[in-house]
Amino acid sequence: MITAADLWTVSYAVAGIAAASAAAGIIVLRLLAARSVVTSMTVVAGVTVAATLASVVVISVEMFISRKDLDVVLAVVAVAGIAGFAVAVLLGRRVSAASRLMLDAVRQVGTDGRYFPPPAAVLPAELAVLSAALETAHGQLAAARDRERTLEASRRELVAWVSHDLRTPLAGLRAMAEALEDGVVTDRPTVSRYHAQIRTETDRLTLMIDDLFELSRIHAGRLRLVRQAVGLGDLVGEALTSAEPLALAKGVRLGGAAEPGLPVWVDAAEVGRALLNLVANAIRHTPAGGAVEVRADRAAALATVTVSDSCGGIPAEHLPRVFDVGFRGETARTPATGEGAGLGLSIARGIVEAHGGQIGVRNAGPGCEFLIRLPLASGPAASGRPAPAAAGVTASGPAQ
């Protein structure tokens, strides 16, 4: 009959053996921390078997188990221990092999720049999750590298084009200034023409520098927005009024309309500049006799502005790059006199995105369709200034 005292003695002894075995195992694991998983799993199995054998011996002594019974118990424990060692080694080898597969995949990244994860079926759950996280991280890094390369290429193109565009008017200004200074040109009509040309080229250079400054502020995140509730129709009317002289000179019909009651919470000056850039771009690439239409509507919780032109469309391969810095596509899209550095669309995108909106382009009908989406203001529109033109203003040039 086992008494309470016997149970206490056995429990006390077994607990002491377990604590001592655990402490010894922890010390060994720390000493072997830099070794393989197989070694660690073997240590764990060894500690378990040693603690079990010691406990069996103590119990046999305390309970006066016969020698024969003790041998049987020890044999059973030994067989179980061998099985435990085998399972631990196999498990450790599997984890080690899976770790090597992941290591090889990570090393391969340095060769081709991509992470190809091992099959999830051969990885333990924890390593499979880690591998999936690595794949996601490397995908994000690859996308960031692609964006950086694209941006750097755009910057190089921009520097090359701007350098060319600046050199041309500067050369003309220098030639005219030298002619006036040296007295080569003295007749009043020619002098007047030179003065007018110098003023025109100076205005062009000023426009280009303003565009570059605005774009640099956008890229540096230093675009300071002074938001207010503004009627989108007012902004469309202002853009149409400002673009009317260009449309008349080009012989392009310019029209627009806006759904009433479209308040947007924006910086009126910046969004007005973005709209004017889109309208001016549409007019420049629309042939004489063509039409440019601007419409402002509501789509769910968004206000939308659509600028449609008759430019004949943009090649499909160029559509994704229309808003890139420095991208001009075909030679026909190279800015002419008075057009600046060709940064209008990039500036428009930066302004719209700074307001939490979206901008896009597609080929539609006889030309292109640029679309801006802006969040509607929660309160009533109150621009605090009169609109210079009605939302439906139309400017038409002579058909040619």
Secondary-structure blueprint:
Blueprint: H1 4-31, H2 37-63, H3 67-112, H4 125-182, H5 188-219, E1 228-231, H6 232-250, E2 253-258, E3 263-266, H7 268-284, E4 291-299, E5 302-308, H8 344-354, E6 358-364, E7 367-375, E8 394-395
Parallel strand pairs: 2-4
Antiparallel strand pairs: 1-3, 2-8, 4-5, 5-7, 6-7
Model description:
This protein is an alpha+beta fold and 400 residues long. It folds into 3 domains: 4-123, no CATH class; 151-219, Helix Hairpins (Orthogonal Bundle); 228-395, Histidine kinase-like ATPase, C-terminal domain (Heat Shock Protein 90, 2-Layer Sandwich). 60% of the residues lie in helices and 12% in strands. It is built from 8 helices and 8 strands; from the N terminus they run αααααβαββαββαβββ. The protein has helices at residues 4-31, 37-63, 67-112, 125-182, 188-219, 232-250, 268-284, 344-354; strands at residues 228-231, 253-258, 263-266, 291-299, 302-308, 358-364, 367-375, 394-395. The strands form 2 sheets. The chain has a 6-stranded mixed β-sheet with strand order 6-7-5-4-2-8. Strands 1-3 form a two-stranded antiparallel ribbon. β6 (358-364) and β7 (367-375) form a beta hairpin. α4 packs antiparallel against α5 (188-219), α6 (232-250) runs parallel beside α7 and α7 packs antiparallel against α8 (344-354). The longest helix has 58 residues, at 125-182. It is elongated, with a radius of gyration of 39 Å. The model is unreliable at 330-338 and 380-400 (pLDDT under 50).
Quick synopsis:
The chain has 400 residues and is of the alpha+beta class. The chain is built from 8 helices and 8 strands; from the N terminus they run αααααβαββαββαβββ.
